[in-house]
Amino acid sequence: MAQTTPNHTQSVVGWAAHDPSGKITPYIFKRRENGVNDVTIKILYCGICHTDIHHVKNDWGITMYPVVPGHEITGIITKVGSNVKNFKVGDRAAVGCLAAACMECEFCKDSQENYCDKIQFTYNGIFWDGSITYGGYSEMLVADYRFVVHVPENIALDAAAPLLCAGITVFCPMKDNNLIDSPAKKRIGIVGLGGLGHVAVKFGKAFGHHVTVISTSPSKEKEAKELLGADEFILSTDAMQMQAGKRTLDFILDTVSAKHSLGPILELLKVNGTLSVVGAPEAPFELPSFPLIFGKRSLKGSMTGGMRETQEMMNLCGKYNITCNIEVIKPYQINEALDRLARNDVRYRFVIDIAGGARE
């Protein structure tokens, strides 16, 4: 397949990995011309997701090099196509994981584009024209407007960027389990306090629930309670704390991407409780049957979100003034940031200042 087509005439400065070493270097490539359904976005910020590490190193065996990562993109619209609705030049805009879908299946018609069989991603995907998609580690993006959302005026574009992946990933299971507008206060648990988990705590508190953070790290207790406002903390390596927490939670969101057993976590749920998993460990989960059977508990998965849900999430973030806790870096610091992210050495998300240091 072609990396570009004859319609790809715009030279763009970006940053790419060229082999499984994962080293990111400056890279000039071509974007397509702005089409009738497209908007052109001057990229100001792009978050760094753990997925980026897997792609640049080809951990999943699917990387098409050179790969320009980045699916947590915010910026300003500079051009709109003739068919574009609800966007204009100068709008604050954002692009997440999705670049294209069939727009005809039952999922697309219900704005669950993320579950379309023909979904293509913002980078390392194949666009409708057969070209390889390049992501937000670059100065400019051309995107189908149906996969773009507005960013509320009251939230900063840098701290909003990770919402396009981390935010929507934890928002959707909360919405699916009726936690957004629930008249009753629920007791919810968040497993892991990283890029996803810290946003989940913020959502849980904003939606009026009692939030318990569950972590293997004792040092996270102070962060969870004092920085993020969590109500309780359970150290999952402490048998007494786990025993005391049995059957106390209505819903648990597991954000951890390292191999772990789901059995002890399921035991924390009340009868009929639900555990929703959004982390993707490289090795299969350990899933004993008894905690499921004897508690009539449910186990679900969830992947990002559709475009209607993503805009709803962004609007609620504007309403409740929710953003991500970030560390802003320049493009020349990307490799260092990826190394630190692999060691979980960030609180809680790296964001690249694309416009502020593109050629350093």
Structural topology:
Elements: E1 8-17, E2 24-32, E3 38-47, H1 50-56, E4 73-80, E5 92-95, E6 98-100, H2 106-109, E7 120-121, E8 140-144, E9 149-150, H3 157-160, H4 166-176, E10 187-191, H5 195-206, E11 210-215, H6 220-227, E12 232-235, H7 239-244, E13 249-254, H8 263-266, E14 269-277, H9 290-293, E15 298-301, H10 307-320, E16 326-329, H11 334-342, E17 349-353
Parallel strand pairs: 10-11, 10-13, 11-12, 13-14, 14-15, 16-17
Antiparallel strand pairs: 1-2, 3-4, 3-8, 3-17, 4-5, 5-9, 6-7
Helix pairs in contact: 4-5
| Count of alpha and pi helical runs | 11
Global Rg: 20 Å
By helix and strand content, what is the structural category?
A: alpha/beta
Q: How much helix, percentage-wise, in residues? A: 10-25%
**Biggest beta sheet attributes:** 7 strands, mixed
- Total number of strands: 17
Mean pLDDT reading: 95
What is the general shape? globular
- Unreliable stretches covering 5 or more consecutive residues: none
H/E element order: EEEHEEEHEEEHHEHEHEHEHEHEHEHE
What is the end-to-end distance? 33 Å
Percentage of residues in DSSP E strands: 25-35%
Write up what this structure looks like.
By secondary structure, the chain is an alpha/beta fold. The chain is 23% helix and 27% strand. The strands form 4 sheets. Strands 3, 4, 5, 8, 9, 16 and 17 form a 7-stranded mixed sheet that branches. Strands 12-11-10-13-14-15 form a 6-stranded parallel sheet. A two-stranded antiparallel ribbon has the order 1-2. Strand 13, helix 8 and strand 14 form a beta-alpha-beta unit. Helix 4 (166-176) packs across helix 5. The chain is globular and about 65 Å long. The two termini are 33 Å apart.
